[in-house]
Amino acid sequence: ESYDMGGHDTYMHKEIHEQADAVDRALRGRIDDRFSTVHLGGLNLDARDARAVRRVKILGCGTSYHAGQIGAQMIEELARIPADAEPASEFRYRNPVVDPDTLYIAVSQSGETYDVLAAVQELKRKGARVLGLVNVVGSAIARETDGGIYVHAGPEVCVVSTKCFTNMVVSFGLLALHLGRTRDLSVADGKRIIEGLRKLPGQIEEILANEAQIEELAKEYAEAKSMMFIGRVRGYPVAREASLKLKEVSYIHAEAYPASELKHGPLALIEPAMPTVAIVPNDELLEKNRAALEEIKARSGRILAVAHQEQEKADHTIVVPKNEDELDAILMGIPLQLFAYYTAKAMGRDIDKPRNLAKSVTVE
Ligand code: AGP
Known about the structure:
This protein has 364 residues and is α/β, with parallel strands linked by helices. The protein is built from 14 helices and twelve strands. Helix 4 packs antiparallel against helix 11, helix 10 crosses helix 14 and helix 11 runs parallel beside helix 14.
């Protein structure tokens, strides 16, 4: 991949369209079909170390923190290790308890974000084992961590991260599979996840082929002053990232909430002028998510669903291909990257360089 725009009007558009190739690169040479696992050369974590991990704590900022939230869920689901993600900026200011049985993972596109680097340095001072999940090879965080995974997204120029987010989440999927196979994940489940990972590049192409529908929807919703994004469990970090993407690039105010929390307050905001984007995967929570759509419709709220099939209660549905339940979050945010891009375009925003933002925040 080069810095040439290659016919795209912005780097954001170019980078969204590079995602199938980027994911293919993240998978290449890492899958081991013989043992239904993956090889992650730079991890520096043998099977004995992996089995000794009692908790996983993931640290990152912004989009990378959201990738970490999806990663934590994948690690809990596939490896059954308690895992959570926290903004690195918060973590380092709260004098956290540093536990020798916890595996810490710093996640960063640039590998230079000061808040993440400072958290890594503090953890190292306290004797923790810290891995990096980083895009830029040889960056400060890659150098200071004990090992890790390069996400291989290629150069990302647009301030707003798209392909790197996707490759981070794919890399967390690989790590979760690797940790799972050193613990209780069966050969059959390992095989199932590998098959799911292999489907991703083709499914990304399918989503991007639906660009014209997304462009039309974006033009329609660009009139909104504010938007709500909801999701449940696997869908919640997808909603958070999609809401951040829209805010960053279009400057439309957006809030992300767990769908289950709507009735505890934000339902008061729902009215025709406040559309909701709902993440509705075909998983064990489908009926619960449909109930949330009904609650919104009952308050005359407009709904744009991202789902695996048309949603009757939604005004519009963007249908995405189904993968394994544990991997669906990788795909469901991709149409909403395009949605953010086309909304910003309709509003005449400076897409690659949104106001007040820098690609990497290397100061405190
Ligand atoms: C991405 O859309 C943002 N510009 C921002 O949230 C970014 O993810 C954050 O600053 C962290 O950057 P990093 O991944 O380079 O550490």
